[in-house]
Predict the structure.
Amino acid sequence: MKFTPHILFGLIVLFFLSGCATGVQMVDTRNDRGEAVVGLDYRDFEDAASDAVQDMLARGALNHSGGGRYVVMISRIVNDTMQRIDTDQLVRKIRVEMLNSGRAVVTTAVGLQGAEDQANFAVREGLRGNTEFDQSRVQRAGTLQAPDLSLSGKIIQRNIRMSGNRQQIEYYFMLTLTDLGSGLAIWENEYPVIKRASAREVPW
C-alpha cells in the first residue's frame, strides 16, 4: 500500500497522540497524596476554606443571637500573589462549607460589583406587572434579604531564598468577617501554606 504525504503525516500525529494519552491518569481528589507543587493547588484551597469555616464555628462567629442563620455577602478577595488565581475558587469552597454548617446562607443579590446572580433583579423588573405571568408567583417587593455579615480577604505570597540553592514560598490566606451593622470585624484569621523547593522552581 502506498502512503501519500498527507496519510503519512496523519499516522505520525496519531502515533504521538496515542503515546501521550497513555501518560494521563485520573486523580482521586478525596484521597490524593500526590506530589506537592510550588504553586497553590486545589488541596491548598480546600484546606484553607475548611479550616476558616471550622474556626468561625469554633469561635462562635456564626452563632446567630436570634437562633436563625446569618446572611453573608462576599466582599473583595484580593490576589496579591505571583499566580493568576481566580479567587472565586476559594470563595466557592468557603460558601459550601458555610452552607453545610447550617449556620449561614450566602446572598447572591448583593456584591461589590452588583448582584452576583442578575436573575434576582431580572425576574422582578421583567415580570412584575406583565400580564402574561401569574402575578401571585412573581417575587414581591421587599423580599430580598439584606446581608448581616461580609467576608473579605487577601492572598499574599513571599519568596525567601534559602541556603543550598533552595527557596521557601510562603502563601497566606487572610480572611475577615465583618458585622455590617456595626462595621466591626467579628472574626479574623490567617492560614499559612509554606512550601520548600529548589530555587530553580518557578512558583507561578
